[in-house]
Specification:
Elements: H1 8-29, H2 36-43, H3 47-60, E1 63-65, E2 72-74, H4 76-88, H5 90-106, E3 109-116, E4 119-126, E5 141-143, H6 148-156, H7 158-167, H8 182-195, E6 198-201, E7 208-216, E8 222-231, H9 237-257
Antiparallel strand pairs: 1-2, 3-4, 3-8, 4-5, 6-7, 7-8
């Protein structure tokens, strides 16, 4: 072995430790607070292992411990790093000013979402300029087939649609309005391709309506969706169709900021 080389077994141990540490952080992010036992069980590791990792993360500021309860929660360093990482992401930098203008123009909550593992993940949101507003938290996951941001991806990425059909041949129903019949969904996706935007008409949540359009990067790949969300009391079906071109224009502006030069 060359001087300074890391033995293969040591390298594997170090990678496993990193994996376990991130598993603990992922569990903490999804909960307000968790005890050592809850964390160890949720992450699938021994309490002694979880304890050592948690206290290393505490020293680094990524985890905090409640002095009275002894439970663990996300530390300020992790929150800080998350914000810095988001702001440094090219997609976020390209979308942020466009989202600001769209929220001001329409007075509704604006959201940015990407596909991950057959889910949509909201990676940026701007609150509505109204008292009655939709709450879409960053990091929240949502299904593809019954959200505007998801249907846009399915409509313009056929390989994603085929993958969803293979993994989820039976579509889950979230509300009485959810399309669970594949033929009906495919007919709607054809309409989305024709008009350029998708509408979620109370399909994931009763009382909520959303409109979204696709964002394309410099490689001509659809990488995200941008859209608005509002209570149905304020965003009627007619209004949803009316603002469709505004959403398409916002998506076009973000795409151009990512280097998209138009269809080749």
């Amino acid at each position: 072995m060359e001087p300074g080389a890391i033995p293969e077994s040591d390298g594997q141990v170090r990678v496993q430790s990193v994996e376990r540490a991130f598993r603990l952080l992922e569990k903490l992010v999804m909960h307000t607070e968790m005890s050592l036992g809850q964390l160890a069980e949720a992450a699938g590791m021994h309490k002694s292992t979880a304890y050592r990792l948690l206290h290393t993360l505490m020293e680094l500021g990524y985890v905090e411990q409640d002095g009275d309860q002894g439970s663990y929660r996300v530390g300020i360093r992790l929150v800080e790093m998350g914000g810095l990482a988001t702001r440094s992401w090219p997609l976020h930098r390209a979308a942020e000013p466009v989202m600001d203008r769209l929220a001001e123009a329409l007075g509704e909550a604006v959201n940015l979402a990407v596909e991950d593992g057959l889910d949509m993940v909201y990676v940026a949101t701007i609150d509505a300029y109204n008292l009655l507003r939709m709450q879409l938290n960053v990091g929240r996951r949502a299904p593809l087939h019954c959200t505007a941001v998801g249907k846009v991806m399915l409509a313009f990425r056929p390989e994603l649609l085929r993958r969803l059909q293979t993994v989820h041949p039976q579509l889950r129903r979230y509300t009485p309005h959810t399309l669970t019949d594949w033929a009906a969904l495919e007919a709607e996706l054809a309409s989305v391709r024709e008009v350029g935007f998708a509408v979620d008409d109370e399909e994931q949540e009763v009382g909520a309506r959303c409109v979204a359009a696709p964002i394309v990067d410099h490689r001509n790949r659809i990488v995200a969706s941008i859209g608005i969300s509002a209570p149905t009391a304020r965003l009627s079906r007619e209004r949803a169709v009316e603002v469709g071109p505004d959403i398409i224009e916002a998506a076009r502006q973000v795409s151009e900021r990512l280097g998209y030069l138009g269809k080749k």
